[in-house]
Amino acid sequence: MTHTALTRSTLAAALALGLAGPAQAIEYGTLDTTASKVGFRYTQMGVTLDGQFKQFSAQLRFDPARPEAASTTFEVPLAGIDTGSPEGDDEVKAKTWFDTANHPVARFVSSAVKPLGGNRFEVTGELSIKGKTRPVSFPVTYTPGAPTATFEGALPLRRGDFAIGEGDWASFDIVANNVVVVFHLIAKPLAQ
């Protein structure tokens, strides 16, 4: 199911916002959620499927002149998942998948940004889903612009690490363990 995709999306967006870039006079601190997208990709019965998260938010600080000071907390309300079918959306909210009644939000908190060259960065932090917190790292590409900047990337994760898919769904023969959260985030400058 698309349960792991949720975690990816939450996490990927948060990480992207903590990236560094070339020196500019603009400090970014607002995510344009209308223009941004967070989705996920998973495999079910050998077929690759895509979903998205309709809601997400972020607290971020990113100054391209001081990337070492970048930080972000990215949150995704899991009840806003879109698997492509109403039945799938209801299923992944159940206790065996995301258990949204007890764990309504997936959260990523950045801890470090490492330059990889060419406006690419490795973002590290902690991803929390369904009461489990795991360290994660993933690459992000930063594209400066005026007045907005773009952060794009993908966060691979394993749904089993977060107990997403329990009981009959704990096996990976129907829904694969590997999920990728993909994101395209638009950040706006802080108000001057």
Automatic annotation (TrEMBL):
The keyword Signal applies. Residues 28-188 form the Lipid/polyisoprenoid-binding YceI-like domain. Residues 1-25 form the signal peptide. It comes from the Bacteria. Pfam families: YceI. The keyword Magnesium does not apply. Gene3D superfamilies: Lipid/polyisoprenoid-binding, YceI-like (2.40.128.110). InterPro entries: Lipid/polyisoprenoid-bd_YceI (IPR007372), TTHA0802/YceI-like_sf (IPR036761). Keywords: Signal. PANTHER family: PROTEIN YCEI (PTHR34406). This is YceI family protein.
